[in-house]
Design goal:
about 325 residues; Rossmann fold; 3 domains; six-stranded parallel sheet; six-stranded mixed sheet; disordered C terminus; Peripla_BP_I; transcription regulation; LacI family DNA-binding transcriptional regulator; LacI/GalR-like_sensor; DNA-binding
């Protein structure tokens, strides 16, 4: 026979209501009692009935996680970390992919709001106005977008961009290009602002090419414009765009890093395996996933009435093989 909540209460020496609170509101139970109940529950093989608990508490113990493109290597580490963090807190995560489509994103949010206690939006493509309207249904936390009144986790891509521009300047590059991302992307705007400021400070000429699809195909399609820009150093929206650009330049008889230096963003596995290995800006995606879950659960427990939190995570440049001194293949590297 299935183990019941009464079995756990009897074996733990506590009331049934204490067992219920241990699983539905553990902060209301002393640490000693909570640990005893959880240990007994584990030994007996007891699993709480989520549907019954939802009826009692009004909580589903489910969270929604919406990403722009699940095939992009940027997102899986964030998803995995968020799921693990939620699981430790007795929550499950429903993951949805918008395929970079803001209309689909809105549809998914409206659907998930009926089934979850809160929603994480990662690099959303919706306007802030629409997000502010939708948040009336359940608490939201946003990753890589500033939205008034919402807790936010930002990966400070501007910090990495400034380091990337300074790296190109130190290698003797005087004309650089920025391959921006899709319209409506917070990351694109941050990169643009940081690259413009850093280029001005370093006395570099900056060409901004936008918008671009945040994919290898987007980088491939931009190769002709990059080749014609006169730039010798290129900073790309992400690693996928950088890899597509390298392929497109190769098709035009240009080598990386011999003719052009290329920098990506994300420090994804494809960039580390590529030849040349990609110089890139690392993004703390796993840390962002964990922090976003904690902020969302805080909002859920506060009834979405708490003060919004802004968490900013550091980024940094990783120098590999796709950047070198300005000039043709065979030019000596700086000492």
């Amino acid at each position: 026979m299935a183990v019941t909540i009464r079995d756990v209460a009897r074996a733990s020496g506590v009331h049934v209501s204490t067992v219920s609170r241990t699983f539905s509101a553990p902060q209301l139970v002393s640490a000693e009692t909570r640990n005893r109940v959880l240990t007994v529950a584990e030994e007996l093989g007891y699993r709480p009935n989520r549907a019954a608990r939802a009826l009692t508490t009004g909580r589903t113990h489910n969270l929604g996680l919406i990403v722009a493109d699940i095939a992009n290597p940027f997102f899986p580490p964030l998803i995995k970390a968020a799921q693990a963090q939620a699981r430790e807190r007795d929550y499950h995560v429903f993951v949805a992919d918008t395929d970079e489509d803001p209309l689909l994103e809105q549809e998914l949010i409206e659907m998930l709001c009926k089934q979850v206690d809160g929603v994480l939006l990662c690099s959303p493509r919706l306007s802030n106005r629409v997000i502010e309207r939708l948040r009336a249904q359940v608490p939201f936390v946003v990753v890589n977008r500033r939205v008034k009144g919402l807790s936010t986790v930002l990966m400070d891509v501007g910090q990495g961009v400034r380091a990337a521009v300074e790296h190109l300047a130190a290698l003797g590059h005087r004309r650089i290009a920025l391959l921006s991302g899709p319209s409506g992307s917070w990351t694109s705007e941050e990169m643009h602002a940081a690259a413009t400021a850093a280029a001005d400070e370093s006395g570099l000429e900056l060409t901004v090419l936008r918008p671009n699809e945040p994919t290898e195909q987007g980088g491939l399609a931009a190769a002709a414009a990059v080749a014609g820009s006169g730039a010798t150093g290129v900073l790309c929206y992400n690693d996928l765009v950088a890899l597509g650009l390298i392929e497109g330049l190769h098709e035009r008889g240009l080598s990386v890093p011999g003719d052009l230096s290329v920098i990506g963003v994300d420090d994804s596995l494809p960039g580390r395996l590529n030849r040349p290995k990609l110089t890139t800006i690392t993004m703390p995606t796993a840390a962002a996933g964990r922090m976003a879950v904690d902020l969302l659960l805080a909002a859920v427990n506060a009834g979405d009435t708490g003060t919004p939190t802004l968490a900013r995570l550091e980024t940094h440049l990783i120098v590999r093989e796709s950047t070198r001194a300005a000039g043709r293949v065979g030019a000596p590297l700086p000492a």
